[in-house]
Amino acid sequence: MTVNPAHTSLWPAPHASGAVRATVHVPGSKSVTNRALVLAALASEPGWLRRPLRSRDTLLMAAALREMGVDIEEGVGPDGTGETWRVLPTGLHGPATVDVGNAGTVMRFLPPVAALADGPVRFDGDPRAYERPLHGVIDALRVLGARIDDDGRGTLPLTVHGGGALDGGPVEIDASSSSQFVSALLLSGPRFNQGVEVRHIGSSLPSLPHIRMTVDMLRAVGAQVDTPESGGEPNVWRVTPGALLGRDLTVEPDLSNAQPFLAAALVTGGKVVIPDWPARTTQPGDRLREIFTEMGGSCELTEYGLEFTGSGAIHGIDVDLSEVGELTPGIAAVAALADSPSTLRGVSHLRLHETDRLAALTKEINELGGDVSETADGLHIRPRRLHGGIFHTYEDHRMATAGAIIGLAVEGVQIENVATTAKTLPDFPDLWTGMLGA
Ligand SMILES: O=C(O)C1=C[C@@H](OP(=O)(O)O)[C@@H](O)[C@H](O)C1
Ligand SMILES: C=C(OP(=O)(O)O)C(=O)O
Protein backbone atom coordinates (compact mmCIF):
# COMPACT_ATOMS: atom_id res chain seq x y z
CA MET A 1 0.00 0.00 0.00
CA THR A 2 2.10 2.89 -1.27
CA VAL A 3 1.16 6.33 -2.52
CA ASN A 4 1.84 6.62 -6.24
CA PRO A 5 3.84 9.86 -6.76
CA ALA A 6 2.42 10.12 -10.28
CA HIS A 7 -0.94 11.01 -8.72
CA THR A 8 -0.37 14.40 -7.17
CA SER A 9 -3.68 15.88 -8.29
CA LEU A 10 -5.91 16.86 -5.38
CA TRP A 11 -9.68 17.23 -5.65
CA PRO A 12 -11.28 19.42 -2.98
CA ALA A 13 -14.11 17.20 -1.77
CA PRO A 14 -17.26 19.35 -1.70
CA HIS A 15 -18.57 20.15 1.77
CA ALA A 16 -22.37 19.98 2.10
CA SER A 17 -23.85 23.20 3.40
CA GLY A 18 -27.20 21.56 4.21
CA ALA A 19 -29.37 18.53 3.63
CA VAL A 20 -28.75 17.00 0.21
CA ARG A 21 -31.88 16.56 -1.95
CA ALA A 22 -31.28 14.92 -5.32
CA THR A 23 -32.15 12.27 -7.84
CA VAL A 24 -29.05 10.45 -9.07
CA HIS A 25 -29.07 8.23 -12.15
CA VAL A 26 -26.36 5.67 -11.35
CA PRO A 27 -24.66 3.97 -14.35
CA GLY A 28 -24.80 0.22 -14.94
CA SER A 29 -23.34 -2.50 -12.75
CA LYS A 30 -19.72 -3.49 -13.32
CA SER A 31 -20.34 -7.04 -12.16
CA VAL A 32 -23.39 -7.53 -14.39
CA THR A 33 -21.79 -5.86 -17.43
CA ASN A 34 -18.63 -7.98 -17.27
CA ARG A 35 -20.52 -11.25 -16.73
CA ALA A 36 -22.88 -10.37 -19.58
CA LEU A 37 -19.94 -9.68 -21.90
CA VAL A 38 -18.31 -13.04 -21.09
CA LEU A 39 -21.55 -14.99 -21.50
CA ALA A 40 -22.38 -13.23 -24.76
CA ALA A 41 -18.87 -13.99 -26.07
CA LEU A 42 -19.36 -17.69 -25.26
CA ALA A 43 -22.86 -17.90 -26.75
CA SER A 44 -23.80 -19.56 -30.02
CA GLU A 45 -25.71 -16.53 -31.34
CA PRO A 46 -25.50 -12.72 -31.10
CA GLY A 47 -26.62 -10.90 -27.96
CA TRP A 48 -27.31 -7.36 -26.80
CA LEU A 49 -26.44 -5.40 -23.67
CA ARG A 50 -28.50 -2.31 -22.99
CA ARG A 51 -27.16 0.40 -20.67
CA PRO A 52 -23.84 -1.38 -20.12
CA LEU A 53 -21.39 0.29 -17.79
CA ARG A 54 -18.72 2.17 -19.71
CA SER A 55 -15.76 2.31 -17.31
CA ARG A 56 -12.14 1.18 -17.17
CA ASP A 57 -13.01 -2.35 -15.97
CA THR A 58 -15.72 -2.96 -18.56
CA LEU A 59 -13.80 -1.42 -21.45
CA LEU A 60 -10.85 -3.65 -20.55
CA MET A 61 -13.18 -6.66 -20.63
CA ALA A 62 -14.56 -5.65 -24.04
CA ALA A 63 -11.06 -4.98 -25.41
CA ALA A 64 -9.82 -8.37 -24.18
CA LEU A 65 -12.70 -10.25 -25.81
CA ARG A 66 -12.12 -8.34 -29.04
CA GLU A 67 -8.45 -9.38 -28.88
CA MET A 68 -9.68 -12.99 -28.84
CA GLY A 69 -11.83 -12.39 -31.92
CA VAL A 70 -15.22 -11.41 -30.51
CA ASP A 71 -16.98 -8.58 -32.32
CA ILE A 72 -18.52 -6.00 -29.97
CA GLU A 73 -20.34 -3.16 -31.69
CA GLU A 74 -20.92 -0.14 -29.47
CA GLY A 75 -23.90 1.95 -30.44
CA VAL A 76 -27.08 3.59 -29.36
CA GLY A 77 -30.26 1.53 -29.28
CA PRO A 78 -33.63 2.59 -30.65
CA ASP A 79 -35.34 5.57 -28.92
CA GLY A 80 -35.17 5.56 -25.18
CA THR A 81 -32.98 2.51 -24.71
CA GLY A 82 -29.69 4.45 -24.45
CA GLU A 83 -26.31 2.88 -25.13
CA THR A 84 -26.47 -0.65 -26.53
CA TRP A 85 -23.65 -3.07 -27.28
CA ARG A 86 -24.13 -5.91 -29.76
CA VAL A 87 -21.90 -8.91 -29.16
CA LEU A 88 -21.19 -11.25 -32.07
CA PRO A 89 -19.42 -14.36 -30.82
CA THR A 90 -16.90 -15.94 -33.16
CA GLY A 91 -14.34 -18.70 -32.90
CA LEU A 92 -12.15 -17.55 -30.00
CA HIS A 93 -8.50 -17.43 -30.95
CA GLY A 94 -4.98 -16.36 -30.07
CA PRO A 95 -2.38 -15.08 -30.31
CA ALA A 96 -3.78 -12.35 -28.11
CA THR A 97 -2.64 -10.07 -25.32
CA VAL A 98 -5.03 -9.14 -22.55
CA ASP A 99 -4.52 -6.12 -20.29
CA VAL A 100 -6.50 -6.81 -17.13
CA GLY A 101 -5.69 -3.41 -15.58
CA ASN A 102 -6.59 -4.01 -11.93
CA ALA A 103 -9.97 -5.58 -12.70
CA GLY A 104 -10.61 -8.71 -10.65
CA THR A 105 -13.37 -9.69 -13.04
CA VAL A 106 -11.08 -9.50 -16.08
CA MET A 107 -8.08 -11.25 -14.52
CA ARG A 108 -10.22 -14.10 -13.11
CA PHE A 109 -13.08 -14.53 -15.62
CA LEU A 110 -10.95 -14.55 -18.78
CA PRO A 111 -8.27 -17.26 -18.31
CA PRO A 112 -11.00 -19.96 -18.59
CA VAL A 113 -12.26 -18.26 -21.76
CA ALA A 114 -8.69 -18.20 -23.08
CA ALA A 115 -8.40 -21.93 -22.42
CA LEU A 116 -11.22 -22.36 -24.97
CA ALA A 117 -9.48 -20.17 -27.55
CA ASP A 118 -7.28 -21.56 -30.25
CA GLY A 119 -3.78 -20.19 -29.60
CA PRO A 120 -1.80 -18.47 -26.84
CA VAL A 121 -3.33 -15.66 -24.80
CA ARG A 122 -0.99 -13.60 -22.63
CA PHE A 123 -2.38 -11.84 -19.53
CA ASP A 124 -0.75 -8.80 -17.96
CA GLY A 125 -1.95 -5.85 -15.91
CA ASP A 126 -1.24 -3.08 -13.39
CA PRO A 127 1.47 -3.64 -10.76
CA ARG A 128 -1.24 -4.30 -8.15
CA ALA A 129 -2.73 -7.03 -10.38
CA TYR A 130 0.51 -8.99 -9.83
CA GLU A 131 -0.27 -9.08 -6.11
CA ARG A 132 -3.91 -10.16 -6.31
CA PRO A 133 -4.55 -13.89 -5.96
CA LEU A 134 -5.23 -15.95 -9.07
CA HIS A 135 -4.07 -19.40 -7.89
CA GLY A 136 -7.64 -20.70 -7.63
CA VAL A 137 -8.16 -20.14 -11.35
CA ILE A 138 -4.69 -21.20 -12.54
CA ASP A 139 -4.55 -24.44 -10.53
CA ALA A 140 -8.13 -25.36 -11.38
CA LEU A 141 -7.66 -24.80 -15.10
CA ARG A 142 -4.61 -27.06 -15.06
CA VAL A 143 -6.65 -29.81 -13.39
CA LEU A 144 -9.36 -29.30 -16.02
CA GLY A 145 -6.85 -29.79 -18.84
CA ALA A 146 -5.38 -26.37 -19.67
CA ARG A 147 -1.74 -25.55 -20.37
CA ILE A 148 -0.59 -22.38 -18.60
CA ASP A 149 2.85 -20.77 -18.33
CA ASP A 150 3.31 -18.64 -15.23
CA ASP A 151 6.12 -17.88 -12.82
CA GLY A 152 4.78 -20.26 -10.15
CA ARG A 153 3.53 -17.53 -7.77
CA GLY A 154 -0.13 -18.07 -8.62
CA THR A 155 -0.52 -14.57 -10.00
CA LEU A 156 -0.08 -12.56 -13.20
CA PRO A 157 1.61 -12.39 -15.63
CA LEU A 158 0.80 -15.63 -17.39
CA THR A 159 0.05 -17.19 -20.76
CA VAL A 160 -2.82 -19.57 -21.37
CA HIS A 161 -2.10 -21.86 -24.33
CA GLY A 162 -5.66 -22.38 -25.51
CA GLY A 163 -6.31 -25.59 -27.39
CA GLY A 164 -9.72 -24.65 -28.82
CA ALA A 165 -11.52 -26.81 -26.23
CA LEU A 166 -11.13 -27.93 -22.61
CA ASP A 167 -11.98 -31.26 -20.95
CA GLY A 168 -13.55 -29.79 -17.82
CA GLY A 169 -14.96 -32.04 -15.08
CA PRO A 170 -14.62 -31.97 -11.28
CA VAL A 171 -12.19 -29.65 -9.48
CA GLU A 172 -11.48 -28.57 -5.90
CA ILE A 173 -10.46 -25.00 -5.14
CA ASP A 174 -9.89 -22.79 -2.14
CA ALA A 175 -11.83 -19.63 -2.92
CA SER A 176 -11.49 -18.06 0.51
CA SER A 177 -9.49 -15.18 -0.97
CA SER A 178 -11.99 -14.42 -3.75
CA SER A 179 -15.43 -15.60 -4.83
CA GLN A 180 -14.37 -14.66 -8.35
CA PHE A 181 -12.47 -18.00 -8.62
CA VAL A 182 -15.79 -19.84 -8.42
CA SER A 183 -17.59 -17.41 -10.74
CA ALA A 184 -14.77 -17.64 -13.30
CA LEU A 185 -14.98 -21.44 -13.60
CA LEU A 186 -18.78 -21.50 -13.66
CA LEU A 187 -19.11 -18.82 -16.36
CA SER A 188 -17.10 -20.79 -18.92
CA GLY A 189 -18.25 -24.16 -17.57
CA PRO A 190 -21.06 -24.80 -20.09
CA ARG A 191 -18.46 -24.67 -22.87
CA PHE A 192 -16.12 -27.26 -21.30
CA ASN A 193 -16.54 -30.75 -22.83
CA GLN A 194 -17.71 -32.25 -19.53
CA GLY A 195 -19.02 -29.05 -17.99
CA VAL A 196 -17.56 -28.33 -14.57
CA GLU A 197 -18.09 -29.28 -10.93
CA VAL A 198 -16.47 -26.76 -8.58
CA ARG A 199 -16.00 -27.79 -4.95
CA HIS A 200 -14.84 -25.04 -2.57
CA ILE A 201 -12.66 -26.58 0.15
CA GLY A 202 -11.48 -23.44 1.92
CA SER A 203 -12.38 -22.19 5.38
CA SER A 204 -14.69 -19.39 4.28
CA LEU A 205 -16.18 -18.05 1.07
CA PRO A 206 -16.69 -14.29 0.60
CA SER A 207 -19.17 -12.45 -1.60
CA LEU A 208 -21.82 -15.17 -1.98
CA PRO A 209 -24.29 -12.80 -3.71
CA HIS A 210 -21.75 -12.44 -6.52
CA ILE A 211 -21.74 -16.24 -6.99
CA ARG A 212 -25.56 -16.15 -7.04
CA MET A 213 -25.33 -13.42 -9.69
CA THR A 214 -23.13 -15.74 -11.79
CA VAL A 215 -25.59 -18.63 -11.40
CA ASP A 216 -28.64 -16.45 -12.19
CA MET A 217 -27.03 -15.01 -15.29
CA LEU A 218 -25.89 -18.45 -16.49
CA ARG A 219 -29.44 -19.81 -16.09
CA ALA A 220 -30.82 -16.79 -17.95
CA VAL A 221 -28.78 -17.80 -21.03
CA GLY A 222 -29.95 -21.39 -20.87
CA ALA A 223 -27.25 -23.07 -18.76
CA GLN A 224 -28.13 -25.80 -16.31
CA VAL A 225 -26.52 -25.11 -12.93
CA ASP A 226 -26.92 -27.10 -9.71
CA THR A 227 -26.10 -25.18 -6.55
CA PRO A 228 -26.07 -25.70 -2.78
CA GLU A 229 -29.27 -23.60 -2.67
CA SER A 230 -31.03 -25.79 -5.25
CA GLY A 231 -30.63 -28.89 -3.11
CA GLY A 232 -27.03 -29.77 -4.00
CA GLU A 233 -24.14 -30.38 -1.61
CA PRO A 234 -22.82 -27.42 0.41
CA ASN A 235 -20.00 -25.57 -1.38
CA VAL A 236 -20.46 -27.47 -4.66
CA TRP A 237 -21.64 -25.96 -7.97
CA ARG A 238 -22.20 -28.09 -11.07
CA VAL A 239 -22.62 -26.76 -14.63
CA THR A 240 -23.83 -29.07 -17.40
CA PRO A 241 -22.19 -28.72 -20.84
CA GLY A 242 -24.36 -27.03 -23.45
CA ALA A 243 -24.77 -24.12 -25.86
CA LEU A 244 -25.56 -20.64 -24.50
CA LEU A 245 -28.26 -18.38 -25.90
CA GLY A 246 -27.73 -14.81 -27.05
CA ARG A 247 -29.76 -12.48 -24.83
CA ASP A 248 -31.13 -8.98 -24.82
CA LEU A 249 -30.17 -7.79 -21.36
CA THR A 250 -30.73 -4.41 -19.73
CA VAL A 251 -28.01 -3.85 -17.14
CA GLU A 252 -29.19 -2.75 -13.67
CA PRO A 253 -27.70 0.37 -12.07
CA ASP A 254 -24.61 -0.42 -10.01
CA LEU A 255 -25.98 -0.53 -6.46
CA SER A 256 -22.50 -0.54 -4.90
CA ASN A 257 -21.79 2.66 -6.79
CA ALA A 258 -25.10 4.06 -5.49
CA GLN A 259 -23.56 3.79 -2.02
CA PRO A 260 -21.85 7.21 -1.80
CA PHE A 261 -25.05 8.96 -2.93
CA LEU A 262 -27.17 7.13 -0.35
CA ALA A 263 -24.49 7.92 2.22
CA ALA A 264 -24.85 11.60 1.31
CA ALA A 265 -28.50 11.50 2.35
CA LEU A 266 -27.56 9.70 5.56
CA VAL A 267 -24.70 12.03 6.47
CA THR A 268 -26.54 15.30 5.71
CA GLY A 269 -30.04 14.29 6.87
CA GLY A 270 -31.25 14.71 3.29
CA LYS A 271 -33.05 12.64 0.68
CA VAL A 272 -31.63 10.90 -2.39
CA VAL A 273 -33.59 9.01 -5.03
CA ILE A 274 -31.91 6.33 -7.18
CA PRO A 275 -34.15 5.59 -10.20
CA ASP A 276 -34.43 2.01 -11.52
CA TRP A 277 -33.34 0.34 -8.27
CA PRO A 278 -34.35 -3.27 -9.04
CA ALA A 279 -37.11 -4.92 -6.99
CA ARG A 280 -35.18 -8.18 -7.11
CA THR A 281 -31.44 -8.42 -7.60
CA THR A 282 -28.35 -10.43 -6.69
CA GLN A 283 -26.24 -7.27 -6.38
CA PRO A 284 -24.69 -6.98 -2.92
CA GLY A 285 -25.44 -3.25 -2.89
CA ASP A 286 -29.09 -4.10 -2.21
CA ARG A 287 -28.01 -4.83 1.39
CA LEU A 288 -27.48 -1.06 1.80
CA ARG A 289 -31.22 -0.68 2.31
CA GLU A 290 -30.87 -2.63 5.54
CA ILE A 291 -27.39 -1.47 6.61
CA PHE A 292 -27.95 2.26 6.11
CA THR A 293 -31.38 1.97 7.75
CA GLU A 294 -29.69 0.52 10.82
CA MET A 295 -27.22 3.40 10.67
CA GLY A 296 -30.01 6.00 10.88
CA GLY A 297 -31.81 6.32 7.53
CA SER A 298 -35.07 5.01 6.14
CA CYS A 299 -35.96 3.91 2.66
CA GLU A 300 -38.85 3.23 0.39
CA LEU A 301 -38.62 1.10 -2.72
CA THR A 302 -41.19 2.22 -5.30
CA GLU A 303 -41.75 1.38 -8.95
CA TYR A 304 -39.65 4.45 -9.81
CA GLY A 305 -36.67 3.48 -7.68
CA LEU A 306 -35.25 3.80 -4.18
CA GLU A 307 -35.98 6.83 -2.01
CA PHE A 308 -33.52 7.04 0.84
CA THR A 309 -33.90 9.58 3.64
CA GLY A 310 -31.45 10.48 6.39
CA SER A 311 -32.79 11.37 9.84
CA GLY A 312 -29.94 13.66 10.80
CA ALA A 313 -28.58 11.01 13.19
CA ILE A 314 -25.87 8.53 12.16
CA HIS A 315 -25.46 5.42 14.30
CA GLY A 316 -22.56 3.01 14.55
CA ILE A 317 -23.08 -0.60 13.50
CA ASP A 318 -21.73 -4.05 14.32
CA VAL A 319 -21.99 -6.01 11.09
CA ASP A 320 -20.57 -8.99 9.23
CA LEU A 321 -19.76 -7.76 5.71
CA SER A 322 -18.33 -11.02 4.35
CA GLU A 323 -21.12 -11.28 1.75
CA VAL A 324 -20.86 -7.65 0.72
CA GLY A 325 -17.18 -6.79 1.17
CA GLU A 326 -17.10 -4.18 -1.58
CA LEU A 327 -19.41 -2.00 0.55
CA THR A 328 -16.85 -1.76 3.38
CA PRO A 329 -15.07 1.50 2.42
CA GLY A 330 -18.34 3.46 2.18
CA ILE A 331 -19.67 1.98 5.42
CA ALA A 332 -16.39 2.77 7.19
CA ALA A 333 -16.63 6.39 6.01
CA VAL A 334 -20.16 6.77 7.39
CA ALA A 335 -19.15 4.96 10.60
CA ALA A 336 -16.35 7.49 11.15
CA LEU A 337 -19.04 10.21 11.31
CA ALA A 338 -21.47 8.29 13.56
CA ASP A 339 -22.59 8.91 17.16
CA SER A 340 -21.31 5.52 18.41
CA PRO A 341 -18.54 3.02 17.57
CA SER A 342 -18.73 0.41 14.81
CA THR A 343 -17.26 -3.03 14.23
CA LEU A 344 -17.02 -4.27 10.64
CA ARG A 345 -16.31 -8.01 10.47
CA GLY A 346 -15.72 -10.85 8.01
CA VAL A 347 -13.64 -8.92 5.47
CA SER A 348 -10.00 -10.02 5.85
CA HIS A 349 -9.98 -10.72 2.09
CA LEU A 350 -10.16 -6.96 1.50
CA ARG A 351 -6.42 -6.88 2.17
CA LEU A 352 -6.10 -8.32 -1.37
CA HIS A 353 -8.52 -5.98 -3.16
CA GLU A 354 -7.55 -2.92 -5.27
CA THR A 355 -5.32 -2.03 -2.31
CA ASP A 356 -5.13 -3.35 1.25
CA ARG A 357 -8.44 -1.68 2.07
CA LEU A 358 -8.28 -2.34 5.81
CA ALA A 359 -4.86 -0.68 6.11
CA ALA A 360 -5.78 2.15 3.74
CA LEU A 361 -9.03 3.03 5.52
CA THR A 362 -7.33 2.91 8.92
CA LYS A 363 -4.48 5.16 7.84
CA GLU A 364 -6.49 7.72 5.92
CA ILE A 365 -9.31 8.15 8.45
CA ASN A 366 -6.78 8.37 11.30
CA GLU A 367 -4.81 11.03 9.43
CA LEU A 368 -7.96 13.16 9.48
CA GLY A 369 -8.09 12.75 13.28
CA GLY A 370 -10.09 9.51 13.43
CA ASP A 371 -9.63 6.48 15.66
CA VAL A 372 -9.76 3.33 13.54
CA SER A 373 -7.94 0.08 14.25
CA GLU A 374 -7.60 -3.08 12.22
CA THR A 375 -8.77 -6.41 13.61
CA ALA A 376 -7.95 -9.84 12.21
CA ASP A 377 -10.99 -9.69 9.93
CA GLY A 378 -12.11 -6.08 9.79
CA LEU A 379 -12.16 -2.69 11.48
CA HIS A 380 -13.07 -1.05 14.78
CA ILE A 381 -14.14 2.54 14.21
CA ARG A 382 -14.52 4.95 17.13
CA PRO A 383 -15.87 8.25 15.83
CA ARG A 384 -13.86 11.39 16.66
CA ARG A 385 -14.13 14.99 15.50
CA LEU A 386 -12.32 14.92 12.13
CA HIS A 387 -10.37 17.69 10.42
CA GLY A 388 -9.40 18.43 6.82
CA GLY A 389 -6.37 16.99 5.06
CA ILE A 390 -5.31 14.85 2.12
CA PHE A 391 -7.17 11.55 1.70
CA HIS A 392 -4.94 9.17 -0.30
CA THR A 393 -6.70 6.65 -2.51
CA TYR A 394 -4.04 4.05 -3.53
CA GLU A 395 -5.63 3.69 -7.00
CA ASP A 396 -8.80 2.36 -5.34
CA HIS A 397 -12.08 3.76 -6.65
CA ARG A 398 -13.88 2.96 -3.40
CA MET A 399 -11.25 4.79 -1.31
CA ALA A 400 -11.96 7.90 -3.42
CA THR A 401 -15.72 7.71 -2.90
CA ALA A 402 -15.22 6.98 0.83
CA GLY A 403 -13.13 10.15 1.12
CA ALA A 404 -15.83 12.14 -0.67
CA ILE A 405 -18.43 10.95 1.88
CA ILE A 406 -16.25 12.20 4.75
CA GLY A 407 -15.68 15.48 2.88
CA LEU A 408 -19.42 16.21 2.95
CA ALA A 409 -19.25 16.54 6.73
CA VAL A 410 -15.65 17.67 7.25
CA GLU A 411 -14.31 20.85 5.67
CA GLY A 412 -10.98 20.82 3.85
CA VAL A 413 -10.77 17.16 2.76
CA GLN A 414 -8.80 16.78 -0.47
CA ILE A 415 -9.02 13.54 -2.44
CA GLU A 416 -5.80 12.49 -4.11
CA ASN A 417 -6.38 11.10 -7.63
CA VAL A 418 -10.18 11.18 -7.73
CA ALA A 419 -9.77 10.05 -11.37
CA THR A 420 -9.25 6.53 -10.02
CA THR A 421 -13.06 6.31 -9.76
CA ALA A 422 -12.90 5.66 -13.54
CA LYS A 423 -12.41 1.98 -12.68
CA THR A 424 -16.17 1.64 -12.25
CA LEU A 425 -17.67 5.15 -12.22
CA PRO A 426 -15.91 7.68 -14.48
CA ASP A 427 -18.75 10.18 -13.96
CA PHE A 428 -18.29 10.28 -10.19
CA PRO A 429 -16.99 13.86 -9.74
CA ASP A 430 -19.74 15.27 -12.00
CA LEU A 431 -22.49 13.17 -10.43
CA TRP A 432 -21.27 14.22 -6.98
CA THR A 433 -21.18 17.95 -7.68
CA GLY A 434 -24.47 17.62 -9.61
CA MET A 435 -26.06 15.99 -6.55
CA LEU A 436 -24.91 18.93 -4.43
CA GLY A 437 -26.34 21.40 -6.93
CA ALA A 438 -22.90 22.90 -7.52
O1 LIG B 1 -17.69 -11.20 -9.03
C1 LIG B 1 -17.72 -9.98 -8.90
O2 LIG B 1 -18.22 -9.22 -9.75
C2 LIG B 1 -17.16 -9.39 -7.67
C3 LIG B 1 -16.91 -10.21 -6.58
C4 LIG B 1 -16.32 -9.70 -5.32
O3 LIG B 1 -14.97 -10.11 -5.31
P1 LIG B 1 -14.26 -10.88 -4.06
O4 LIG B 1 -15.01 -12.13 -3.80
O5 LIG B 1 -12.87 -11.08 -4.56
O6 LIG B 1 -14.35 -9.92 -2.91
C5 LIG B 1 -16.42 -8.18 -5.23
O7 LIG B 1 -15.67 -7.71 -4.14
C6 LIG B 1 -15.96 -7.53 -6.52
O8 LIG B 1 -16.05 -6.14 -6.42
C7 LIG B 1 -16.86 -7.95 -7.67
C1 LIG C 1 -13.07 -5.53 -5.29
C2 LIG C 1 -13.51 -4.81 -6.32
O1 LIG C 1 -13.19 -4.99 -7.63
P1 LIG C 1 -12.57 -6.19 -8.48
O2 LIG C 1 -13.65 -6.58 -9.45
O3 LIG C 1 -11.38 -5.62 -9.15
O4 LIG C 1 -12.23 -7.31 -7.52
C3 LIG C 1 -14.45 -3.66 -6.11
O5 LIG C 1 -14.96 -3.14 -7.11
O6 LIG C 1 -14.68 -3.26 -4.95
UniProtKB/TrEMBL annotation:
<comment type="subunit">
    <text>Monomer.</text>
</comment>
<comment type="similarity">
    <text>Belongs to the EPSP synthase family.</text>
</comment>
<keyword id="KW-0808">Transferase</keyword>
<feature type="binding site">
    <location>
        <position position="398"/>
    </location>
    <ligand>
        <name>phosphoenolpyruvate</name>
    </ligand>
</feature>
<comment type="pathway">
    <text>Metabolic intermediate biosynthesis; chorismate biosynthesis; chorismate from D-erythrose 4-phosphate and phosphoenolpyruvate: step 6/7.</text>
</comment>
<comment type="function">
    <text>Catalyzes the transfer of the enolpyruvyl moiety of phosphoenolpyruvate (PEP) to the 5-hydroxyl of shikimate-3-phosphate (S3P) to produce enolpyruvyl shikimate-3-phosphate and inorganic phosphate.</text>
</comment>
<feature type="domain" description="Enolpyruvate transferase">
    <location>
        <begin position="17"/>
        <end position="430"/>
    </location>
</feature>
<feature type="binding site">
    <location>
        <position position="104"/>
    </location>
    <ligand>
        <name>phosphoenolpyruvate</name>
    </ligand>
</feature>
<feature type="binding site">
    <location>
        <position position="180"/>
    </location>
    <ligand>
        <name>phosphoenolpyruvate</name>
    </ligand>
</feature>
<feature type="active site" description="Proton acceptor">
    <location>
        <position position="326"/>
    </location>
</feature>
<feature type="binding site">
    <location>
        <position position="179"/>
    </location>
    <ligand>
        <name>3-phosphoshikimate</name>
    </ligand>
</feature>
<dbReference type="InterPro" id="IPR006264">
    <property type="entry name" value="EPSP_synthase"/>
</dbReference>
<feature type="binding site">
    <location>
        <position position="357"/>
    </location>
    <ligand>
        <name>phosphoenolpyruvate</name>
    </ligand>
</feature>
<feature type="binding site">
    <location>
        <position position="31"/>
    </location>
    <ligand>
        <name>3-phosphoshikimate</name>
    </ligand>
</feature>
<feature type="binding site">
    <location>
        <position position="132"/>
    </location>
    <ligand>
        <name>phosphoenolpyruvate</name>
    </ligand>
</feature>
<feature type="binding site">
    <location>
        <position position="35"/>
    </location>
    <ligand>
        <name>3-phosphoshikimate</name>
    </ligand>
</feature>
<feature type="binding site">
    <location>
        <position position="423"/>
    </location>
    <ligand>
        <name>phosphoenolpyruvate</name>
    </ligand>
</feature>
<feature type="binding site">
    <location>
        <position position="30"/>
    </location>
    <ligand>
        <name>3-phosphoshikimate</name>
    </ligand>
</feature>
<feature type="binding site">
    <location>
        <position position="30"/>
    </location>
    <ligand>
        <name>phosphoenolpyruvate</name>
    </ligand>
</feature>
<dbReference type="GO" id="GO:0003866">
    <property type="term" value="F:3-phosphoshikimate 1-carboxyvinyltransferase activity"/>
</dbReference>
<feature type="binding site">
    <location>
        <position position="178"/>
    </location>
    <ligand>
        <name>3-phosphoshikimate</name>
    </ligand>
</feature>
<dbReference type="InterPro" id="IPR013792">
    <property type="entry name" value="RNA3'P_cycl/enolpyr_Trfase_a/b"/>
</dbReference>
<protein>
    <recommendedName>
        <fullName>3-phosphoshikimate 1-carboxyvinyltransferase</fullName>
        <ecNumber>2.5.1.19</ecNumber>
    </recommendedName>
</protein>
<dbReference type="InterPro" id="IPR023193">
    <property type="entry name" value="EPSP_synthase_CS"/>
</dbReference>
<dbReference type="Pfam" id="PF00275">
    <property type="entry name" value="EPSP_synthase"/>
</dbReference>
<feature type="binding site">
    <location>
        <position position="353"/>
    </location>
    <ligand>
        <name>3-phosphoshikimate</name>
    </ligand>
</feature>
<keyword id="KW-0028">Amino-acid biosynthesis</keyword>
<feature type="binding site">
    <location>
        <position position="180"/>
    </location>
    <ligand>
        <name>3-phosphoshikimate</name>
    </ligand>
</feature>
<feature type="binding site">
    <location>
        <position position="207"/>
    </location>
    <ligand>
        <name>3-phosphoshikimate</name>
    </ligand>
</feature>
<dbReference type="InterPro" id="IPR036968">
    <property type="entry name" value="Enolpyruvate_Tfrase_sf"/>
</dbReference>
<keyword id="KW-0963">Cytoplasm</keyword>
<feature type="binding site">
    <location>
        <position position="326"/>
    </location>
    <ligand>
        <name>3-phosphoshikimate</name>
    </ligand>
</feature>
<dbReference type="InterPro" id="IPR001986">
    <property type="entry name" value="Enolpyruvate_Tfrase_dom"/>
</dbReference>
<keyword id="KW-0057">Aromatic amino acid biosynthesis</keyword>
